[in-house]
Amino acid sequence: SYSTVAWGASAAKGVKENVQYTSTSTSTAGSVFDFFNALGTVAFAYAGHNVVLEIQASIPSTPEKPSKVPMWRGCIVAYIIVALCYFPVAIIGYWMFGNAVEDNVLISLEKPAWLIAMANFFVVLHVIGSYQIFAMPVFDMIESVLVKKMNFEPSRILRFVVRNVYVAFTMIVAITIPFFGGLLGFFGGFAFAPTTYFVSH
């Protein structure tokens, strides 16, 4: 996968000359913000919180065999897999490039171009597949509102139009916001806290 390419190529490239591991922040406030941004980034890496409840709702549940048991096991396995994919990228990327590492470690690599292109191709494949899963609750919500409250006739055409308009909208937003790395902390914390902590308690 692209994460393996990222940490493998970083390790093969070796430690950058004059690498520095000191904080880039020059003030206490900056260090605090960097800390919380890092927490948000880690939370964002464990994406999928918005579909967890939808998945659990589809699992048969009885008082004797509640759905939370297999769901909890599935979450543990999923989180372990995510950790095995992303933690090597974070650790080796920082080890090789220090505080000069980019939000996207592939940018720090610079070359070979073919390897970076291959990793980005894997990213595209990953996003195409995962987007369908993450967006499904939004699709359902929009279609439910249109059918139940706005009296649209449920049909394949409605589904086709709604989903394509939503995808186009999110694509435009993504293109017009080039500083995605800076927003990871906000979106990570925003999605992680209410759906993981508050819902589970």
UniProtKB/TrEMBL annotation:
The lineage of its organism: Eukaryota, Viridiplantae, Streptophyta, Embryophyta, Tracheophyta. Residues 4-198 form the Amino acid transporter transmembrane domain. It comes from the Eukaryota. This is Lysine/histidine transporter 1-like protein. Belongs to the amino acid/polyamine transporter 2 family. Amino acid/auxin permease (AAAP) (TC 2.A.18.1) subfamily. GO terms for molecular function: symporter activity. It comes from Trifolium pratense. One of its GO terms (biological process) is amino acid transport. Carrier protein involved in proton-driven auxin influx. Mediates the formation of auxin gradient from developing leaves (site of auxin biosynthesis) to tips by contributing to the loading of auxin in vascular tissues and facilitating acropetal (base to tip) auxin transport within inner tissues of the root apex, and basipetal (tip to base) auxin transport within outer tissues of the root apex. May be involved in lateral roots and nodules formation.
